[in-house]
Design a protein that fits this description.
Two copies of one chain form a homodimer.
Chain A: H1 7-17, E1 26-27, H2 30-36, E2 39-44, H3 54-62, H4 67-72, E3 74-77, H5 81-92, E4 97-102, H6 107-115, E5 119-123, H7 130-141, E6 144-145, H8 152-168, E7 174-178, H9 183-195, E8 200-206, H10 211-218, H11 243-250, E9 253-257, H12 259-271, H13 279-289, E10 300-305, H14 312-320
Parallel strand pairs in A: 2-10, 3-4, 3-6, 4-5, 7-8, 7-10, 8-9
Antiparallel strand pairs in A: 1-2
Chain lengths: ~325, ~325
């Protein structure tokens, strides 16, 4: 197993990403604050390159490969933002990239990943085993596997989103982060623990994909059945081997939200704040809008909006549901 | 006639707006730059309070009223962003506000304006004369008329959007600004002339609402027939008495765009940059994406995205048109 990353790794990742990743803006909304009873500072990773924070970790991983490793290329599995983030990072660094994607992935995601120059290998979703396929390709073609979250360089890269927010708003009381496999929240928790130890780090999961909630409650990694949610980026079935101990050490609690609450937040962010946020990215805002996090009244709350890559039809359906 | 504003008025407006208006972020997009062949810096006034730059001028005008004037309140006519911007500014400053709106205005705009606490007076659009109605209400109720663009405090307030962009990106070659009645571009032109005199200030109008284009070509104010365009904020039929001389002095040229080009830009900004921009606000991006501005290849171009208040159904229709 790779060693756990520390805050210094987050800081070093920030240096590597400087001038490459966007330093995304931090927005505020008095209307949101009135509704949620907080003072929220939104870190807009939906405005990041390739549309999500995933680019940070992917770039931080590929840039640290040796010249020979880069020349052989990288491989991963993802139907979502990690695919696009890694494809873009690889292109910028001159590395070939192969992404293993399910054969029923939306055409728009396949096109976006291809658009960044990656080769796509399709697999039958029902048969699963995408990680196995990626490993085999890696072995056959000498490519480095870049996992979606459970890797120290990925975690350190994702943590730079939290680092930037904490640098910009120094007196946060709470930091709210969406949780899939835990790459983003564990990186952000390292930054918060170092820069603002008094801040509570709170994760958000869909209620039906509550593996990290259960794992933290039990004190050990729990795997759940594969769930469905409009927050399709938050569906890993267990926290990672590397991410979980960091979460256990530095995450205060996990809040759970329903798909209806997430859809409401997507609408609010679109209609009132004029930004396109995908359901996974809006889960944090949903938790605040719907009172799912305790002790935030009047508090200064950092909120990671993690991505904006929503299928146009899905977005239209959400916006029409009001 | 009120005296023309100068750059000092823009600077003073910036001081009054500090901590009240959002200092909106400046975004970049390598994908946009590749398509347009420029280096674009987008000033996101769609992320401004009340959804558009209009709040700046409205607040700068209401804040300068005497206590007695504020107590009597303000009146204006607008079916768009000026209504919402003025309603919010008046509420923040404790002034009653009356907005004269056409009786066929979209319910969403009426609701938004009412939501900021303004009283709405409806008029029959076919009969026109909304300015006359507003003047009569002002006279009857002792309210100060706050016109949508042709007023020195309005112009100075709108200019702060350009001022902030020029402060953040100091070496712009070109500044591209949408043109309705000219309040925004004349304020921005004052800032550009003072801070970056070598920068060309270029306006953008819908091809069918080209009154400023014609006026600048002829050297005097030309009124056109009322046009239709999806850019419903850019439809005044003539530049203002105060705005036109400033445009004549400091605006290099006006580019014209079609509704199709504007719709394409709205889609690009939504799908690739993850921001909601209304058609009027996207006209500038449209001009660059479709090569309607000369001499911008490789140039550093400031681009004002002026607002984000688009009707959800209209937006859905534009997004579906791809």
């Amino acid at each position: 197993m790779k060693p756990a990353p520390a805050f210094d790794d987050v800081r070093e990742a920030a240096r590597r990403l400087d001038g490459v990743a966007h330093r995304t803006p931090v927005l505020t909304s008095r209307t949101f604050d009135e509704r949620a009873g907080t003072r929220a500072f939104f870190k807009c990773e939906n405005l990041q390159r390739a549309g999500a924070f995933k680019f940070r970790g992917a770039y931080n991983t590929v840039v640290r490969l040796t010249g020979a490793e880069r020349a052989c290329g990288v491989v991963s599995y993802s139907s979502g933002n990690h695919a696009q983030g890694l494809a873009l990072a690889a292109r910028l660094l001159g590395a070939p990239a192969v992404i293993v994607m399910p054969n029923d992935a939306p055409e728009v995601k396949l096109a976006a990943t291809r658009g960044y120059g990656a080769e796509i290998v399709l697999y039958e979703r029902a048969e699963g085993k995408r990680e196995e396929i990626a490993r085999r390709i890696g072995a056959e073609r000498g490519m480095t596997l870049v996992p979606p979250f459970d890797h120290p360089h990925i975690i350190a890269g994702q943590g730079t989103a939290g680092l930037e927010l904490l640098e910009e708003v120094r007196d946060l009381d709470v930091l709210v982060v969406p949780v899939g496999g835990g790459g983003l929240i564990s990186g952000c928790a390292l930054a918060a623990h170092a820069l603002r130890p008094s801040a509570r780090v709170v994760g958000v999961e869909p209620a039906q994909a509550n593996d990290s909630y259960l794992s933290l409650a039990r004190g050990e990694r729990v795997a759940t059945a594969q769930a469905q949610s409009i927050a399709d980026g938050l569906l890993p079935t267990a926290p990672g081997e590397i991410t979980f101990p960091i979460m256990k050490a530095h995450v205060h609690s996990i809040a759970l939200v329903t798909d209806e609450e997430i859809a409401d937040a997507v609408r609010f962010l679109h209609e009132r704040m004029k930004i396109v946020v995908e359901p996974s990215g809006a889960a944090t805002a949903a938790a605040l809008l719907h009172g799912r996090i305790e002790g935030v009244r009047g508090a200064k709350v950092g909120v990671i909006l993690s991505g904006g890559n929503v299928d146009p039809n899905a977005l239209t359906a959400i916006l029409a549901r009001a």
